[in-house]
Write a structure and sequence with these properties.
By secondary structure, the chain is of the alpha/beta class. The chain contains 14 helices and 18 strands. About 30% of the residues lie in helices and about 25% in strands. The chain binds NADP nicotinamide-adenine-dinucleotide phosphate (NAP).
């Protein structure tokens, strides 16, 4: 019964996708006499938490003595809303079922203790793994201080991600494109290098599936991005950030700001933009997960700097014989067991094979939740 109710709470939670970050997605379900009598979710950043939404939707006498099922420990601090654990206790709920503790240092076990101190029984760990996966960006950012980073690319059987030169060519098939858009909607930001923008002129939005488009991020030391590119022309305010060098002239930056593009300056390191500073600035803007979509030089830099957690690699049944590989021929990777990856999933999407890997180090971090 608890697992079924928690699965429902998790599907409620996902209704907040794209609207609540950097808050976690949370869903809550109320059970009484072995029946589900209510459900709710956290709808928008700064809005009521799922537990408060649920309590608001039902009369007090129905809530009394019920069991609350929620995918994250209820909060215990006064933030944008009053603490949910006190509200739960005040309404006479007798049992609370949670998937995980909240790693936020303001909560971290205090919500559960607050409930237990008021005589409420707390059952922990129901659907724990699924609950961590749904909010992996939130958990990771809280624990490691940087967003969860997924590198995604499509390659041919002979390992090419593109033709040489600035020739536009799609490697994967249309069904894979739909899967890519699904991946996009599960991230707060999509990041590419300037050469990808100059070659492909991408939109980087979510359009083949329902969902909110993430923030689009371009790494462009010298602000070479053309004002007529689709990213610059098509975007609503604040949805595109271009990271550039601290040496870039004011005039170029101001021209882009006039076009509603946000420009951030970071230091350079070996002639390239400093990636740690870049991802830290994104974290400060509330980004908890980043999908790195290439190209090769960007992928290489993220791997070299050990700034990645998952790899989503698509292998398409094509042979190019020439072209760019996903990573440079030679680059430095610290050879450590922790840098090895575990295969999480293999998918066959209309003959494109998708391999989903996670770094052992990241798996170890997530196991501490
Ligand atoms: N098959 C796929 O999945 C896929 C996906 C994406 C792209 N692509 C293809 O890949 C090709 C482009 O790849 P690419 O390797 O030439 O270029 P890229 O990775 O798209 O962009 C590289 C450029 O980004 C800038 N940059 C800024 N900071 C950087 C950093 N820390 N590390 C690396 N680069 C940084 C540099 O230009 P500045 O010095 O000017 O800043 C660098 O030259 C295109 O043909 C595109 O179609 C394929």
């Amino acid at each position: 019964m608890f697992r079924k109710a928690m699965s429902l709470a998790l599907s409620e939670a996902e209704k907040g996708l794209g609207k609540v970050s950097p808050n976690p997605m949370v869903g809550a379900v109320l059970i009484k006499n072995r029946k589900i009598i209510g459900k709710a979710f956290h709808k928008r950043f700064g809005g009521l938490h799922a537990e408060a939404e649920l309590i608001k939707s039902l009369p007090d006498k129905i809530i009394k003595n019920a069991t609350l099922v929620v995918n994250l420990e209820p909060c215990s601090h006064y933030g944008k809303t009053p603490p949910c654990s006190l509200l739960i206790a005040d309404k006479g709920i007798k049992k609370v079922v949670v998937s995980t503790k909240d790693p936020n240092p303001l909560v971290s076990g205090r919500g559960i203790r607050c409930l237990e101190n008021r005589g409420i029984r707390v059952v922990k760990g129901i659907c724990r793994e699924e609950a961590i996966e749904v909010n992996r960006g939130f958990f990771f950012a809280q624990m490691e201080g940087r967003p969860f980073i997924t590198i995604k690319y499509a390659q041919t059987i002979d390992g090419r991600i593109a033709f040489p030169g600035k020739k536009r060519y799609r490697i994967s098939n249309f069904s894979s494109l739909i899967y890519t858009h699904t991946l996009r909607k599960y991230h707060d930001a999509i990041l590419v290098g300037i050469e990808t923008v100059l070659t492909d002129d991408p939109l980087l939005n979510v359009r083949h599936v329902d969902g909110v488009s993430p923030l689009k991020v371009v790494l462009d030391s010298g602000l070479r991005i053309p004002p007529e590119s689709r990213l610059v022309r098509n975007e609503e305010k604040g949805k595109v950030i271009i990271f550039t060098s601290k040496r870039t002239g004011k005039r170029k930056i101001e021209e882009l700001i006039k076009l509603n593009i946000r420009v951030e300056q970071v230091d350079e390191q070996n002639g390239k933009l400093n990636l740690l500073q870049t991802v830290n600035k994104l974290k400060e803007s509330g980004i908890t997960s980043i999908l790195v979509e290439g190209g090769a030089r960007i992928i290489t830099s993220f791997i070299e700097d050990d700034l990645y957690d998952d790899l989503e690699v698509c292998i398409s049944p094509k042979i190019l014989g020439e072209g760019i590989r996903a990573t440079a021929d030679h680059f430095k990777v610290p050879i450590r067991y922790e840098n090895q990856m575990r295969l999480l999933k293999i998918k066959n999407i209309s003959n494109d094979v998708w391999l989903h890997y996670r770094k052992i180090k990241t798996i170890n971090i997530m196991e501490k939740i």
